[in-house]
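ok so dumb question maybe but i'm new to this and my supervisor (M.) told me to 'just get the structure for Arc-like DNA binding domain-containing protein' and walked off. so i did the thing. is this what she meant?? sequence i used:
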Amino acid sequence: MTETTIQQFQLRLPSDLKQSIEKEAEHNNRSINAQILFMLQNYEENNGRVHFLSESVLHRLERFQKDNNYSSQVEAIEEILNDTLQKKDNGRDILNELHTAFKTEKNLRTLAKNILSSHLLVKNIIIEDNNFIEFTLADGSQGKMLKDGKMLYKSSAKDNYSIYTYSTYNYK
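this is what came out, is it supposed to look like this??
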C-alpha cells in the first residue's frame, strides 16, 4: 500500500474568492482545507471542468439530465434556464425576440414556429396568410407582428393595440 505524503504550503487568495470558498465549505460541512481539496480532486476527475454548484444541486441536475435524456449538463442547464426565463417573459419581451429574429428571417410562419409555438406562456397563435402573426399570452396580453416588421402590443384583450417599438429596455 502506497502512503500519501501531505505537504503544507501557504496559499494567497483574493478575499472574495476566499469568502466564496468559505461559504461553500460551510454549506457542505467541510473545513476550508477539505473544501479546496474536494474542489481540486473534482477538477481532476472532471477533466478540468469546475463545478460552481453545490453537491445537492449538482445531484439534482444529474438526475434531471438522466430523466430527460440530455446528452450533457450544459444542455440540461440551458433547458432549465430557458423554461425559467420564459416564465418571466411578457408580451414586450416576446416582441423583442421576434424583432431580433425578423432581421434574418422574414417568414412569419417560421417565426411563429421557432419562437411562439414553443414558448411556455403563449396560449394562442393566429397566422394570417403571412400578413401578420398574433399571439396571446396566459395573462391575456397580446402581441402582433406585421409582414413589414411593425409590431403592435396590448396589455389585455379589452385594450386597443398600440404601436410597439423594439427596445433593449428591460421591462421586468
